[in-house]
Amino acid sequence: MKNKNVLITGGASGIGLAIVKKFARSGAIVYLLDFNQESGEKAVADLTGEGLQVYFKQLDVSDQSQVKEVIGNIGGNLDVLVNNAGVSHIGNLETTEEADMDRLFAVNVKGVYNCSRAVIGRMRSQGGGVIINMASVAATMGIPDRFAYSMSKGAVLNMTLTMARDYVKDNIRCNAISPARIHTPFVDDYLAKTYPGKEKEVFDQLAATQPVGRMGSPEEVANMAYFLASDEAAFLTGADYLVDGGFCKLKM
């Protein structure tokens, strides 16, 4: 991965930041693309302090003109795009408002479309590239109170499969990663807001729903993203890779 240009959306925290660190520490030139300027700049400051090549670009993935401008101004080859930016929502059909649906579609679905569209032409002209899309176990499993979120991640998974088919002859590989419950700051914030005083109890309950008996770590998802982007995965395209502790296949 040394000196390859890697673009990672939603890279300022959680899974995205773990992916940024994995690629940067492996010698890649990483462009951290995130809406949160403060978090993005802090992450870059920390990593450049290690002597790594990481650059922050503020980006709203739902804004196509902004995506085209920001990615268009990145020089050199576009070797890897990791479409990680996403938002969540809890609710069923009746409790999901139109604004909720629009927000999830704009970021989770249109964001993947915008960023992939912005890189695909250059990947074709340079002779290949890799696109990795962050889906979810919610894309294929019926999970309670995840109506809009499941919709959006199902769309991400199907975009992955069609892009892989459309560009396989251009030496562009496209795969999806579907995590289950991953222990990120988002989880901690959610538990603190929703179950004050019972955070550890609820956390342990959620962790126990994973057949392996724990939540995954962001680094474990980052390891999969790195592998799929590497030459060791040259024969892999058009697939969804579960990082789920057995959630989909072994769930009791």
Question: What would a concise description of this structure say?
Answer:
This protein is α/β, with parallel strands linked by helices and 252 residues long.
Overview of this protein structure:
The chain has 252 residues and is of the alpha/beta class. The protein has two domains: 5-180 and 218-246, Rossmann fold; 183-215. It is built from nine helices and seven strands, in the order βαβαβαβαβαβαααβα. Strands 3-2-1-4-5-6-7 form a seven-stranded parallel β-sheet, with helices on both faces. The longest helix has 29 residues, at 98-126. It is globular and about 50 Å long. The termini are far apart. The relative contact order is 0.14. The mean pLDDT is 96.
Q: What's the structural blueprint in terms of helices and strands?
A:
Layout: E1 5-9, H1 14-24, E2 29-34, H2 37-48, E3 54-58, H3 64-72, E4 80-83, H4 98-126, E5 129-134, H5 147-167, E6 172-179, H6 185-194, H7 199-208, H8 218-229, E7 240-243, H9 247-250
Helix pairs in contact: 1-8, 3-4, 4-5
Strand portion? 15-25%
Mean pLDDT, as a whole number?
96
Structural class: alpha/beta
Q: Which shape, going by the Cα principal axes?
A: globular
- Distance from N terminus to C terminus (CA atoms, Å) equals 39 Å
Query: Largest sheet, if any?
Result: 7 strands, parallel
Q: Briefly, what CATH class of the largest domain? A: Alpha Beta
CATH topology category name of the largest domain: Rossmann fold
Q: Determine the CATH superfamily of the largest domain.
A: NAD(P)-binding Rossmann-like Domain
Total strands: the figure is 7
Number of helices: 9
Strand order of the largest sheet: 3-2-1-4-5-6-7
**Strand/helix succession:** EHEHEHEHEHEHHHEH
Helix content: 40-55%
- What Rg is obtained from the alpha carbons, in whole angstroms? 18 Å
Number of domains: 2
CATH architecture level-2 label of the largest domain: 3-Layer(aba) Sandwich
Which runs of at least 5 residues are low in confidence (pLDDT < 50)?
none
Family: Belongs to the short-chain dehydrogenases/reductases (SDR) family.
Keywords: Oxidoreductase
GO molecular function: oxidoreductase activity
InterPro entries: NAD(P)-bd_dom_sf (IPR036291), Sc_DH/Rdtase_CS (IPR020904), SDR_DHRS6-like (IPR051122), SDR_fam (IPR002347)
